[in-house]
Amino acid sequence: MKELTAVIIGFGQSGSRFAQAFSAINSQGKRIRVAGVMDREPAKLVSFPQSTRTSTELEDLWKDGDPDLVIVATNDAEHYSVLTEIKTRGLGFGRIICEKPLVTKFHHGEDIRRQFEASEISVNFLERFSVAVKELRSHLKENRLWVRRVSFTWSKFRVNDPRPSSIGVLSEISHALDLSLFLAEIRPGGQFRFMGGHKTLSDFTLDGESVADELSFSVAFPGEILISGRSSYVTTRRSRRLELFLAREGESRITGIVEVTLDDPEWDDDQIMHYEIGKQGKMKLNWEFRTSSNSVPASRRNINKLCRLIEANMAELSGSVEPDIPRSADALYVQEISNGISEGVGSSHFRGFR
After folding, report:
1. Does 50 have pLDDT greater than 90?
2. Residue 306 · residue 69 · CB < 8 Å
3. What is the pLDDT of residue 68?
């Protein structure tokens, strides 16, 4: 594989994780070089070697040629302006990997759909690249099982977090929604029906803006598939858990439940437990699979899923086909569902964090 080049736009927590992932991938002989890094705050750029171009201006990163990978790791609200600037300035690239959510407003999503080819943008829905999730999908296929219902909890503590949060906890549910759709094999563009929900808006962010800190909802999809979720930014413990209710192929009766626990206690510590439901309500463990962050090289520890997502995009740029890569169509479908949830749920208001 020839050496690929990457540029990183935005060097906060997300951008630094991408840089760490590129370093880990390089250490295993897959050649990719960070050619440039851009951030509006010059202080974040002082640690890079002279061989890496740094700037506070986006267009400067293209002075050494078109990069193979462009990482958009700015704040949520800036994704649209960055993507639009790349396109309107005619800046060339092989593939964009954008942090989630792709955009925060529906009409911005429609603009992105018009401006970019579907294959030009991938989105950082990295839970798809859990080794445990891959094994689960194989297990379901081999046993001819399908997902009829998903219930998830996806939460973490963000009170007084300095990172801007223009859409609040709606940003947090995007990972869980994408993973739920992925496991239930619901393709982008299908119809859905909002069934109900509630959100709490508060002043939990440092800027004191009133945005959603907690949300619960249910959405129905064709085939009588139901996805229900709860997400919060005001819980004391990170929780990434899904329960999949399974039926046998061609049947509708639930015969089993899969419990998916991700990133617990460390990033990439993932666990799958498949239980069969007995006639008298007792559950029997049918199959399990676990991954450990300690089972990968030290350089990939806690970033293995991100490395795998990057490697899939690198492979596709080199000519292979990687069907699990989350595309802009997936992200915009998640955005459409999120917008429907946000507009449809009832709300309550709380002020007291400031």
Report:
1. no
2. no
3. 98
Average pLDDT value for residue range 73-85? 95
Q: Does residue 208 sit in helix, strand or coil?
A: coil
Of 336, 315, 345, nearest in space to 32 by CA: 315
DSSP state of 202: E
Q: What is the 3-class SS of 73-139, one letter each residue?
A: CCCHHHHHHHHHHHHHCCCCCCEEEECCCCCCCHHHHHHHHHHCCHHHEEECCHHHHCHHHHHHHHH
Contact between 217 and 228 (Cβ < 8 Å): yes
For the sheet containing 346-350, what is the strand order? 283-291, 270-277, 254-261, 234-248, 145-157, 225-232, 211-221, 193-202, 346-350
Q: How far apart are CA 196 and CA 215, in angstroms?
A: 11
The domains found in the chain, sorted by start residue, are 4-123 (3.40.50.720), 130-293+326-350 (3.30.360.10)
Amino acid identity for residue 12 in this structure:
G
**Amino acid identity at 212:** A
Residue in 290, 295, 76 with CA at minimum distance from that of residue 174? 76
Helices (H) and strands (E) in the chain, counts: 7, 15
Q: Is the pLDDT of residue 161 over 90?
A: no
Residue carrying the six token digits 């999809």: 221
The percent of the chain in helix, strand and coil, each rounded to the nearest 5, is 35, 30, 35
Helices (H), the chain: 13-27, 79-88, 106-115, 131-142, 170-183, 304-317, 328-344
> What is the average pLDDT value for the chain, to the nearest integer?
94
Phi, psi angles (nearest 5°) of residue 200:
-115, 125
Give the gyration radius of the chain's Cα atoms.
21
Q: Which of 26-40, 102-116, 296-310 has the highest mean pLDDT?
A: 296-310
